[in-house]
Amino acid sequence: MSVVDLSKLYQVDDDGRLFISPVIRDWSILDAHGIDTVIDLEGGLDECIPTVPGQCLYVYFPIYDEDLPNLRRLEAVAAMGAHLVQGGHRVLSHCGMGFNRSALVAGRILHRLGMPGPDVVTRLRERRAGALFNEVFAEHLLGLR
Fold first, then answer.
1. Are 60 and 3 in contact (CB under 8 A)?
2. Whole domain around residue 113: which residue ranges?
């Protein structure tokens, strides 16, 4: 069994504003990267997220690593993430292991920012080895034009 570095962030855009990662256990890693928005896709709320007003936008959108989630909600979260990235915020999409759910949402954000689906999948797999082994998620992103 391989050991996963649970403190690793993977930058998936070129401007250093969009990241994916496995589970968060220590906010200081995010703080060091200036991340002020977290999209949490795993079950259970992150206990380390700051509760100081205005410090962090925390979006809790737990989804299964199986079939696609509700597409309207997925699109809404992606639109919000893209809007924040365009406004200079740094956004983290994270799930338990940082391979599928986080990549799905980050991929939808990259698409909203203008990247075609096939390029999204290539980018995510280059930036996070092993990403998108969930073929349902990969095929969904590949189909985005």
1. no
2. 10-142
Instruction: Find the angle CA(123)-CA(40)-CA(104) to the nearest 5 degrees.
Output: 30
Q: Which residues contact 130 (CB under 8 A, 6 or more apart)?
A: 99
H or E element in which residue 57 lies: strand 57-60
By DSSP bridging, strand 18-21 and strand 91-94 are parallel
Question: How far, rounded to the nearest angstrom, does the alpha carbon of residue 95 sit from its chain's CA centroid?
Answer: 8
Q: What is the CATH number of the domain that holds 37?
A: 3.90.190.10
Map tokens 């893209």 to a residue: 82
The residue ranges of the chain whose pLDDT is under 70 are 1-7
Q: Is residue 5 domain-resident?
A: no
The domain total for the chain is 1
Residues 29-49: tens digit of each pLDDT: 899 999 999 999 999 999 888
In whole angstroms, what is the distance from residue 71 CA to residue 108 CA?
11
Has residue 65 been placed in a domain? yes
Residue 79: strand, helix, or coil = helix
For residue 19, the 8-state DSSP code is E
